[in-house]
């Protein structure tokens, strides 16, 4: 049982509690929730900041990288002196500074198909903001198998995409319905191709919002849609993402 919100928490979360679509009931659900964030990078930084500030009760941060000077242009949870520190340790310290009501669990491990089920055990939502397809598939497959809603965000240069996946449900797609057996596009990386800092901030913030919606539903259903963000054109588009009957992940 999650204890009721304290006076300090009622003050802190007053701007959530006054929202009729969210309210005290939503805030209490956030407090009771456990969220895994895979990748404490450009997407993870704002997501961790917003989810800690918002009062998610337990955050598990999974990343095996260390902070590098070239991360600091976009990974806003880190400060210059964090260079060389394990990302999950620096991010956990920052999250605790933002909100002492949040339990933060840093896990400095690279997630892979062999350990993903264990690393994601017991969480209510997974946010994947990692930077490579091997990890994305490992996370998506483990989340699918355990029926954990997956919020997946990705960025490159001036664009991004966001999806929410609960592919075990009859009409909703899984991550593999979207990407297929093997990604059509060649793997891109921020290191080689670059990315404008605020692009990661926008997609990471949207991912945090979808984690909150998955925990305490408000507004429209997000699963089954794909948001495409083109910031060269300042254009947001939402496509319907159907379930693929022949999908290797969720098909029959
Ligand atoms: Zn599928």
Short précis:
This protein is of the alpha/beta class and 252 residues long.
In total, how many domains does the architecture comprise? 1
How big is the Rg? Answer: 17 Å
Percentage of residues in strands = 15-25%
Task: List each distinct ligand once.
Answer: zinc ion
CATH superfamily: NAD(P)-binding Rossmann-like Domain
Q: Number of DSSP strands? A: 8
Give the SSE string. HHHEHEHEHEHEEHHHEE
Structural class: alpha/beta
Whole-number average pLDDT?
A: 95
Write the layout of secondary structure elements.
Layout: H1 7-12, H2 14-17, H3 23-32, E1 34-38, H4 44-54, E2 58-62, H5 87-98, E3 103-107, H6 116-119, E4 125-128, H7 133-145, E5 150-156, E6 159-165, H8 175-179, H9 190-193, H10 197-215, E7 225-230, E8 235-240
Parallel strand pairs: 1-2, 1-4, 2-3, 4-5
Antiparallel strand pairs: 5-6, 6-7, 7-8
Helix pairs in contact: 4-5, 4-10
The structure holds zinc ion (ZN).
Can you characterise this structure?
It is a single chain. It contains ten helices and eight strands. Helix content is 35%, strand content 18%. By secondary structure, it is α/β, with parallel strands linked by helices. The model has no long low-confidence stretch (mean pLDDT 95). Strands 3-2-1-4-5-6-7-8 form an eight-stranded mixed β-sheet, with helices on both faces. It binds zinc ion. Residues 167, 173-174, 176-177, 244, 247, 249-250 line the site of zinc ion (ZN). Residues 167, 173-174, 176-177, 244, 247, 249-250 line the site of zinc ion.
């Amino acid at each position: 049982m999650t204890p009721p919100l304290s006076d300090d928490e009622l003050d802190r979360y007053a701007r959530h509690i006054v929202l009729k679509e969210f309210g005290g009931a939503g805030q209490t659900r956030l407090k009771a929730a456990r969220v895994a964030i895979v990748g404490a990078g450009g997407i993870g930084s704002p997501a961790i900041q917003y989810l800690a500030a918002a009062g998610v009760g337990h955050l598990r941060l999974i990343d095996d990288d260390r902070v590098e000077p070239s991360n600091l242009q976009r990974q806003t949870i880190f400060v210059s002196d964090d260079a060389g520190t394990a990302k999950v340790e620096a991010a956990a310290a920052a999250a605790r500074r933002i909100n002492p009501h949040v339990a933060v669990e840093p896990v400095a491990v690279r997630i892979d198909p062999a350990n993903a089920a264990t690393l994601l055990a017991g969480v209510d939502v997974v946010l994947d903001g990692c930077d490579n397809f091997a990890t994305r598939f490992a996370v998506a497959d483990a989340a699918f198998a355990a029926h954990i809603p997956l919020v997946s965000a990705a960025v490159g240069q001036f664009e991004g995409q966001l999806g929410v996946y609960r592919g075990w449900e009859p009409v909703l797609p899984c991550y593999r319905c979207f990407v297929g057996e093997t990604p059509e596009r060649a793997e891109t990386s921020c290191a080689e191709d670059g990315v404008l800092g605020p692009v990661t901030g926008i997609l990471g913030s949207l991912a945090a919002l979808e984690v909150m919606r998955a925990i305490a539903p408000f507004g429209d259903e997000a699963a089954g849609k794909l948001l495409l963000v083109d910031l060269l054109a300042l254009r947001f588009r939402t496509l319907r993402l159907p379930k693929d009957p022949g999908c290797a992940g969720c098909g029959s």
